[in-house]
Amino acid sequence: MAQRGLVTTLVLVVPLTFFAQSPPQRLDINGARVLAHLEALSSFGRTLEGGVSRVAFSQADRDGRNFVTDLMRDAGLDVRIDAAGNIIGRRAGRDSTLPPLMLGSHIDSVPDGGNYDGQVGSIGAIEVAQALDEAGVTTRHPVEVVIFANEEAGKIGSRAMSGELEMPELDLISHSGKTNRDGIAFIGGDPANLASARRVSGDLAAYLELHIEQGAILDNEAIDIGVVEGIVGIRRWDVVFEGLANHAGTTPMSDRRDAILAAARFVDAVNRIVTSIPGRQVGTVGRIEASPGVPNVIAGRVRASLELRELDMDKMESIYQDIHAEGEQIARDTGTTFTATQFNISRAAPTDARLRQVIADVASDLGLTHMRMPSGAGHDAQIMAGLGPAGMIFIPSLQGISHSPQELSQPEDIVNGVRVLLGTLLRLDDADGPLRHER
Ligand code: HGY
Ligand code: MN
Ligand code: MN
């Protein structure tokens, strides 16, 4: 990023007359610092392709978390790790009776991921705190910056915060090879005491997340800022076809109970069913493991995944029912059995109407173009939306590429996003009375 040469310090001038005890002053976002911090963070888990493999609970994750923890302390935040492993940095507000305005994202990546997904929002949130600190500004609300644990494999940290994390999920193996339980302990959390990480409705004045779009709409339309209207629901299942492992040379084609054949038909069926109705729903089989998985044995067992995403949870359920029926039919046709066990769910969440308007107004005031759009990727924001008003700010992703080392957002877009994040926080803080939850 730094090599591409954006080293401008952008200065955001906001009227600070409402901060009664502070003299009017300039509140600065330091664009060069944001980019330098992103560059430095990208060294933790860097891959040969130039992306990162900083999967949750790996050593690279722990090192990256230590790096951002230091940044949070430098920004004047009082930092702790909650029982779920979320890093939480807090600065006091003028009115200690008010709930905090929370800014956050994640720094864990998918395997062989990029340098922007989660990282832009994390570094951006820390920069906002640092800008407030340097300007000597005390907001009315306390401000909390949160780096959520294990976003990429099930939003584990935010779902522990909302109370949605189901206990069996602690035993699931994360991308790091550790269970979520061991992983949470590895990064300094306390998996036996998860309830202490919980927040309830009313505990947050608002939650704001800056993120890359991960789609190509903003890039294609040359729009600076996306105002997220809602985040898709995501459901994931473990799918198993059980057949019979048998000799690949002596078993006639008509006598086989081939689990790979069943899985292949299933993959095709998922694609056919999901694309057979209008809408933006997507369905993916992203993992297949065959046992024993050798050339001269008919596979006796296949374990696969199924993931569906859609804004309308009822529509998603109806698509799933069709897929399930087809899975059973395939099992009958191939002499196998079919089971699908759901292991993760994130409900679709609209963002808060008032936050959407504030984000759009702030973008306009900064001279930035903006448009409203849904999010096809999952985010901690959709979980936090259950606890209070939540808003999301998108910036363009070059060609919409994400979850890839080729993921790229331009320096000026990143800095624009952080400016909108700061401006939105200030405007929410300045709002009369407590924020109401509006949809
Ligand atoms: O959308 C996802 O798969 C993840 O939550 N980032
Ligand atoms: Mn993300
Ligand atoms: Mn992601």
What is the percentage of strand-forming residues? Answer: 15-25%
How widely separated are the two ends?
Answer: 37 Å
Bound molecules: (2S)-amino(hydroxy)ethanoic acid, manganese (II) ion
Q: Strand count, sense and closure of the main sheet?
A: 9 strands, mixed
Question: Would you tell me the overall average pLDDT?
Answer: 93
**SS summary, helix count:** 11
Describe this structure in words.
The chain has 11 helices and 18 strands. α2 (59-74) runs parallel beside α3 and α9 packs across α11. It has helices at residues 31-41, 59-74, 119-135, 156-162, 180-186, 217-221, 259-275, 313-334, 353-365, 380-384, 411-430, and strands spanning 11-12, 27-28, 78-81, 87-91, 101-106, 143-148, 206-212, 225-231, 233-242, 246-247, 282-284, 288-291, 297-298, 301-310, 337-346, 349-350, 370-375, 390-395. Strands 3, 4, 5, 6, 7, 8, 16, 17 and 18 form a 9-stranded mixed beta sheet that branches. The longest helix is centred in the C-terminal third of the chain and has 22 residues, at 313-334. By secondary structure, the protein is of the alpha+beta class. Mean pLDDT is 93; it is low at 1-24.
Features:
single chain; 5-stranded antiparallel beta sheet; binds (2S)-amino(hydroxy)ethanoic acid; 11 helices; 9-stranded mixed beta sheet; disordered N terminus; 439 residues
Topology:
Elements: E1 11-12, E2 27-28, H1 31-41, H2 59-74, E3 78-81, E4 87-91, E5 101-106, H3 119-135, E6 143-148, H4 156-162, H5 180-186, E7 206-212, H6 217-221, E8 225-231, E9 233-242, E10 246-247, H7 259-275, E11 282-284, E12 288-291, E13 297-298, E14 301-310, H8 313-334, E15 337-346, E16 349-350, H9 353-365, E17 370-375, H10 380-384, E18 390-395, H11 411-430
Parallel strand pairs: 5-6, 5-7, 7-18, 8-17
Antiparallel strand pairs: 1-2, 3-4, 4-6, 8-16, 8-18, 9-14, 9-15, 10-13, 11-14, 12-14
Helix pairs in contact: 1-3, 2-3, 3-11, 7-8, 9-11
(2S)-amino(hydroxy)ethanoic acid binds next to loops.
